[in-house]
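Researcher: Good morning. I'm working through a list of sequences from a screen, and I'd like to move beyond sequence-only analysis. For each chain I'm collecting a predicted structure so we can compare shapes side by side. This is the next one on the list. No need for commentary yet; just the structure.
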Amino acid sequence: MPQDKQPMVPTSKALQQWLDVAGDLVSRIGCDDFLARFSAAMAQILAFEFLIVFLYRPDAAPALLHDSICVARHRKGLKNYLRNTYVLNPFYQAVRKNPEPGIYFMKDFMPDEYSLESRHQEFPVSLDSFEEIGFLTNDWPSGMQELLIVMPLNESALIEVSLSKKEAGGGFSEYEAETLKTLFPILYALFRKHWEYAAHRLAPELEEPLLERLFHQFGQGVLSEREREVVRMILLGHSSTSIALNLDVALPTVKSHRRNAYAKLGISSQAELFTRYMDSVHQTRG
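Model: Good morning. Structure tokens for this chain:
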């Protein structure tokens, strides 16, 4: 009878590498270069293409705290994400449900029955079935796998550390994920303590506070609350089957709400829905 597969445990060498850099991080708590030192420390433990640190707060767009992106075009892609496509990102939507602290892959936050057809060229994304989330923000590097360190700091602030690596090269291994899980309690403690000392410097002004509210208000005064709910889920990439499962209603009911919403908006396709939504974004921003 075959033995059960044993979980992968980080080697003493990996843990020693962390201990070698952890002292430096402790000494930089509260300092302006803490996140840069943290990025450098992580590079000593596992291989990745780049690291990004985001701050999430209620009713606000994600705020960029630090990144190690070197390619100019990819920095433009990051700007596109922060200005436009973050609201469609599975993790951003998961933040609203208060995820537990820990280590995750982006695929852990994907909705069931994800629909690629609900993306459109009018939105600054490209359909790409090889991407984890089914689409690619314009100018963002393709074929990346994301490993996330999720650290809620209090009821109004959550830190996400996103590590990206090419899937074509194998992506992140189970061993690398387990290494981060082993180190997570220490990482979490470091960030919580750093936040105590540096929150006033880590919380920049809200750059795009209107997009999330606009997203949830889209169709207000025209659509019923249920129709707006269905439309929002279409924009997030859910198929009709996924919408039915999430709202606990019959599939024909979802299709009926969808038809009614399209008729009231004067459109006939998902492509037109995306165009109408983006028009409302542009009008609000002037």
